[in-house]
Design brief:
It is an enzyme of class 2 (transferase). Belongs to the class-II pyridoxal-phosphate-dependent aminotransferase family. Histidinol-phosphate aminotransferase subfamily. The protein has 13 helices and 13 strands. The chain is of the alpha/beta class. Bound molecules: pyridoxal-5'-phosphate (PLP).
């Protein structure tokens, strides 16, 4: 009954099927691109009677220093997911404007737009998973925000920087280009952060959920020039950063926190190479080179393999790409268990 009171858009909406909602049971969890490292933090629970600052200065300065931008170019949000929503809410008129994105890619661009009542233009990636710039150019009417994910989830590849520059040139004075860099800490040299100097309509999404091992914290950042950040500040909630989030983020972004993150990234990148090499030796299995803490793997029978691992307590993520399964990079033991199971499965 109450569902009928909801907006039509909301009635029709299928919520994002997160790994957490899908569930599963077992002891190897490689389905949500989470970090296997459960790091320790100190919490000081005083001053909880007071509201927090909307954009805590120390935390913003620390992330700005890490990202190589100025504090005025940083906005913190409840995960990168809130950044996606703010960008759509701030730049797209419901019913008139559209977003554009290029599947297979992250699911939240479509869901946020749908929730807000903003049209979605879909221009699939080319077979090599790079941008189809011609088709994007033909579909830019009414588009106010273009989302590009690099490294892309779930394919794992980097989007060509040259293509991103062409896209930025095509969209100047027309649309905001959002580069989702949720996994960039695993390959920091591939960031497009240097392009902020040239393009005022570029926004970059970052998060502490992946390489910083803080998915449960819900802390993300949007990087952009001050004028764009100011627009987002108009639509953000007044107190988006809970006090414990501020405290933990500051520790994660301290010198020792950053050193630990970089060490863990090296470890995970080595585990990814291990999985890649091991799976690549199994006849019929195709590996795609990945740049985040996950990889896409094509099996002769992806659905059956996904189910077999699931039934044996190894929880992976099925993907919309035929016969492909996305495997998060866990600790060495989890990777070994997974590799051993898959090797035996195909024997
Ligand atoms: C995980 C992920 C996010 C969301 O990150 P949160 O900060 O946890 O909201 C955004 N984009 C991509 C591509 C992701 O994989």
């Amino acid at each position: 009954m109450v569902m009928k009171l909801a907006r039509k858009q909301v009635q029709a909406l299928t919520p994002y099927l997160s790994a957490r909602r899908i569930g599963g049971s077992g002891d190897v969890w490689l389905n949500a691109n989470e970090s296997p490292f459960d790091n320790e933090y100190q919490l000081n629970f005083s001053r909880l009677n007071r509201y927090t600052s909307c954009q805590p200065e120390d935390m913003i300065k620390a992330y700005a220093a890490y990202a190589g931008v100025s504090a005025g170019q940083v906005l913190t949000t409840r995960g990168a997911d809130e950044g996606i929503e703010l960008l759509i809410r701030a730049f797209c008129e419901p019913g008139d404007d559209a977003i554009l994105f290029c599947p297979p890619t992250y699911g939240m661009y479509a869901i946020s737009a749908e929730t807000i009542g903003v049209e979605r233009k879909i221009v699939p990636l080319k077979p090599d998973w790079q941008l189809d710039l011609t088709a994007i150019g033909q579909n830019l009417n009414d588009v106010k925000v273009v989302f590009v994910c690099s490294p892309n989830n779930p394919t794992g590849n980097l989007v060509s920087k040259e293509d991103i520059i062409t896209l930025l040139e095509m969209t100047r004075d027309k649309a905001v280009v959002v580069i989702d860099e949720a996994y960039i800490d695993f390959c920091p040299e591939a960031s497009v952060v240097d392009l902020l100097a040239e393009f005022e309509h570029l926004a970059i999404l970052r998060t502490l959920s992946k390489a910083f091992a803080l998915a449960g914290l819900r802390c993300g950042f949007t990087l952009a020039n001050a004028a764009l950040i100011e627009v987002l500040q108009k639509v953000i909630a007044p107190y988006p950063v809970p006090l414990p989030v501020e405290e933990i983020a500051r520790q994660a972004l301290s010198e020792s926190g950053l050193a630990r993150m970089k060490f863990q990234v090296l470890d995970l990148n080595a585990n990814r190479a291990y999985l890649q090499a091991g799976l690549g030796m199994i006849p019929g299995v195709k590996i795609y080179e990945g740049w985040g803490n996950f990889m896409l793997v094509e099996f002769p029978d992806g659905d059956a393999l996904f189910k077999a691992t699931w039934d044996n307590g190894i929880i992976l993520r099925n993907s919309p790409i035929e016969n492909c399964v996305r495997i998060s990079v866990g600790n060495r033991e989890e990777c070994e268990k997974t590799l051993t199971f898959i090797r035996n499965y195909y024997q």
